[in-house]
Design a protein that fits this description.
CATH topology of the largest domain: Rossmann fold
Oligomer: single chain
Largest sheet: 5 strands, parallel
Shape: globular
Number of domains: 2
Strand content: 15-25%
CATH architecture of the largest domain: 3-Layer(aba) Sandwich
Length: 257
């Protein structure tokens, strides 16, 4: 059976085929550093990947990491900062410094949505963006959202996390200026089981300005927020450069030169 890894023909002399190839230039190329998706990988495969990252003194975010795998990796000597709620871990101390400003509001409909909300929060932290969680503000008790709406409106971007019927996405997008990144979750039962009702609600919303990622994809929402914020910063930098270039000309005209 053919090997289907990234290096089809490269062999390790002692262990057989190499099964991974770390994309070390992804952050500079795309603005979003590579994350390690742990689901479907064995402890041995993860250990190989993370050992290489440690040896290079790089950092990485690991998503969908089950507690038993995190424990096994720690026993192998890997220094993981593991969060059980989000099933994420971080290794290494590199990466962007955390912004002093709070750029993103993560608004979660219910406490059952916390694993996905915290995946988004942990991913934003890894990318260097400050964020704040607004938890359990779903539409079943609309006063909870309205009590926080003035503060939520102060954020440049909003990640909304909701399961069941996903009504939070439309309600929130109708109350704020900022783009809303909708994350439907698999929380629900009956016709809302698996997150498909919430996904449909996000895609079919009549409130403009909603961008939707896949079900339970807190990391994807954080990555989208990262790219939006980077573009915003680049546009601001271009404007500042233009202002600096125009200022001396204005001063010369004012002095009659």
């Amino acid at each position: 059976m053919p090997i289907t890894g990234n290096r089809l023909n490269e062999q390790r002399p002692d262990d057989g085929p190499v099964e991974h190839l770390i994309d070390r230039d992804r952050a500079s190329r795309t603005g979003v550093a590579e994350a390690i998706f742990a689901s479907g990988k064995s402890v041995e495969q993860l250990a190989d990947i993370l050992s290489e990252i440690e040896d290079r003194r790089d950092s990485a975010l690991i998503t969908r990491l089950a507690p038993e795998k995190a424990e096994a990796l720690s026993k192998l000597g890997l220094r993981l900062h593991y969060d059980r709620v989000s099933s994420t871990a971080r290794i290494g101390s590199g990466g962007p410094a955390l912004s002093k400003s709070l750029d993103v509001a993560v608004v979660a409909a219910g406490t059952s949505d916390m694993p996905v909300a915290w995946e988004a929060l942990r991913s934003l932290e890894f990318f260097g963006h400050g964020s704040k969680l607004f938890a359990d503000v779903g539409v079943a008790g609309l006063w909870r959202l309205l009590d926080n709406i003035d503060e939520i409106r102060s954020y440049r971007l909003i990640i909304a996390v909701a399961g069941m019927e996903g009504a939070l996405f439309s309600v929130l997008a109708g109350l704020v200026h900022a783009p809303v990144i909708a994350v439907p979750t698999s929380v629900g039962y009956g016709v809302s089981a698996g997150g498909h009702a919430a996904l449909t609600s996000a895609l079919a919303s009549c409130a403009p300005g909603i961008v939707t990622v896949n079900i339970d994809n807190g990391f994807g929402a954080a990555a989208a927020a990262r790219k939006m914020l980077l573009i915003g910063q680049r546009l601001a930098d271009v404007k500042n450069d233009r202002d600096l270039a125009v200022a001396p000309q204005a001063e010369r005209r004012g002095s009659g030169v």
